[in-house]
Specification:
The structure holds 2 protein chains of 2 kinds. By secondary structure, chain A is of the alpha/beta class. Chain A is built from 9 helices and 10 strands. Chain A has a single domain, classed as TIM Barrel. Chain A has an 8-stranded parallel barrel, surrounded by 6 helices. Chain A has a two-stranded antiparallel sheet with strand order 8-9. In chain A, β4, α4 and β5 form a beta-alpha-beta unit. The model of chain A has no long low-confidence stretch (mean pLDDT 96). Helix content of chain B is 51%, strand content 11%. Classes of the chains: A alpha/beta, B mainly alpha.
């Protein structure tokens, strides 16, 4: 329990998707936990909510949203927060997360995770909103680094430092999406390991993994495929640096069977074990005088 | 010209660019974008990347915006999409999104204006059929999301004394929508779902009830007198008055008493009512 709230390492989970509902309810598969996409269960009294409640009786569940719009200049949507709070109670959400992004202004929602300009003005604005949201929710929230496809010329902070400062000042958690670090590093040309080095360990409550689509000129975060080797390497690096935290595989397009998705999530265990073994085998480094001293 | 735009300006500008329907160059000089950040400054808001220009990077978000809206409306109106075809449906989505951009945290509300919007779409092929189709598909989404109300059990039905039925009132379940159409739209949806052959797209009065049982959404096609009877019951009339209101109308062929029993039996077994209120 390296994070400051003592949130446990739930193990290896997957995102709950409708195509797997029947399989899960019928077979009770042995899986550590599920993440529910909050908005899919907030405005309905139908089957999705009914299934989510049943699954929450059998497995630990975490609520993950896409419409908090934490960086938006629009007023905070307290109607949304009320429904989110209610959902968290209904599924006994262990924690709740969303993204460092904005989704719309002027009362509109683009339903996208739009990039923030990383300025001090934006940081102050987002800190205030996160504090207000956490006060209302009566619990900390965790914010995920989103995949981004552009950078603003006015930005004065690297994203990783912006996210770290936000987490410290607003006293919120971080959901580190390892695939998103890789995607954004490819799109913007930064060092993904340096990004992870800047993330405060005690703030990280969860990690995400996913597949993506490489278009050559840029990568799109499509959640439509297996995790690539470079992202697994980065996950192993993040584990070595940040320790074991709840790890979740997202698969949202061309979704294969439950067993395939779950199998992909379980690969994370192998990379953790490799990192543990490597640490055990590494000789203790001793202080040696520099040559010529 | 470098930009010193603040957070609010950048967000209004970017949203205006992504929502603009046209080329990205035109988006920069569009009224909404220009109001947030002047066009001469706009080219410097986004940095160029390793392999893409600043505008190409902005265009990634623009491209995805409409595709996302199309995907959401395609989920709510699959038969309308099937009828129009991918290209025509995408054009409709573009016009709709322009007129009614999403204003909710959930896509569940995005299609709320579609039925009304179609009334104004004169250029749409067979607009009235599309309108009727959208009405039925929208009703199905309402039924999908409605709050669950348990249906009356067979025991509860049997517990009602025979002589109490005439003055009793039946209360429909929450996920319940009763509709009348000028086209065979329920059959069309059935054909898209490969339940039956495609009907001829010509004017024809049809009736249907949409409801949910065990969290599965169903459609039941109705004969006209059955629709009238169910409407009367759903409006709160007593069972006796509802039956009288149907039987006093002239139907061709005439409604037989045995049909009434069959309808009631079907509706009860499908769980269309949640309670019976005795006088």
């Amino acid at each position: 329990m390296a994070n400051k709230w003592g949130y446990p390492d739930l193990g290896f989970g997957i995102g709950l998707r409708t195509v797997h509902f029947e399989h899960i309810l019928k077979n009770n598969p042995k899986i550590d936990w599920f993440e529910v996409l909050s908005e899919n269960y907030m405005d309905t009294g139908g089957k999705p909510l009914h299934v989510a409640e049943q699954i929450a009786e059998r497995y630990p569940v975490v609520a993950h949203g896409v419409s908090l719009s934490v960086g938006s200049k629009d007023p905070i949507d307290f109607d949304y927060l009320r429904k989110l709070k209610d959902l968290c109670k209904r599924v006994n959400a262990r924690w709740v997360s969303d993204h460092l992004c904005w989704c719309g202004v002027c009362g509109m929602n683009t339903h996208d995770l739009l990039p923030m300009p990383y300025t001090t003005e934006a940081l102050k604005h987002t800190i205030e909103r996160v504090r207000a949201i956490q006060d209302f929710m009566e619990r900390p929230i965790a914010l995920e680094n989103a995949s981004t496809y552009l950078e603003f010329s006015v930005s004065t902070w690297p994203e990783s430092e912006f996210l770290a400062a936000l987490a410290e000042e607003a006293d919120c958690g971080i959901l580190l999406d390892v695939n998103n670090v890789y995607v954004s590093s490819y799109n913007h040309g930064f060092d993904p390991k340096q990004y992870i080095d800047r993330i405060p360990k005690d703030r990280v409550v969860q990690m995400h993994l996913a597949g993506h689509t490489n278009k050559g000129t840029h990568i799109l975060d499509t959640h439509s495929d297996y995790v690539i080797d470079s992202v697994w390497d980065l996950y192993r690096y993040a584990y070595g640096r940040l320790g074991g935290v709840s790890t979740l595989l997202e698969w949202d397009a061309n979704i294969p069977s439950f067993d395939v998705v779950h199998g992909e999530a379980l690969k994370a265990r192998k990379f953790r074990e490799q990192e543990d073994a490597a640490k055990k085998q590494a000789p203790e480094l001793e202080e040696v005088p520099a040559y010529g001293d | 010209m470098a930009t010193s735009a603040n957070l609010e300006q950048i967000q209004r500008w970017m949203q205006a660019c992504i929502q603009y329907q046209g080329g990205v160059e035109e988006a920069l000089v569009s009224e909404a974008a220009n109001a947030a950040i002047p066009a001469e400054e706009a080219r410097n808001v986004v940095l160029p990347g390793r392999a893409l220009t600043a505008l190409e990077r902005l265009d990634i978000y623009r491209d995805m915006y409409l595709l996302r809206m199309e995907e959401a409306l395609g989920i709510d109106f699959p038969a309308l999409k099937h009828f129009l075809g991918d290209d025509e449906f995408m054009k409709l989505v573009a016009r709709y999104t322009d007129a009614h951009p999403s204003r909710s945290y959930t896509f569940n509300r995005f299609g709320d204006h579609m039925v009304d919007f179609l009334e104004s779409q004169d250029e749409l092929p067979k607009r009235d059929f599309c309108h009727a189709l959208a009405r039925l598909e929208f009703a199905l989404t309402k039924v999908f999301d409605a709050n669950e109300t348990p249906a009356m059990t067979p025991e509860a039905v049997r517990a009602v004394p025979q002589d109490a039925w005439e003055t009793a009132r039946l209360k429909p379940i929450g996920p319940f929508q009763l509709l009348a159409f000028d086209y065979p739209v329920s059959l069309y949806i059935g054909a898209v779902d490969e339940e039956n052959p495609f009907p001829r797209i010509a004017k024809k009065k049809t009736w249907a009830v949409c409801y949910r049982r065990d969290f599965h959404v169903h459609r039941m096609n109705l004969e006209h007198p059955a629709y009238e009877l169910l409407s009367a019951l759903a409006s709160g009339q007593t069972v006796g008055d509802s039956i009288v209101s149907v039987l006093t109308k002239k139907w061709r062929p005439a409604v037989k008493q045995s049909q009434l029993f069959e309808w009631f039996r079907d509706w009860m077994s499908e769980g269309l009512f949640q309670a019976v209120e005795l006088a």
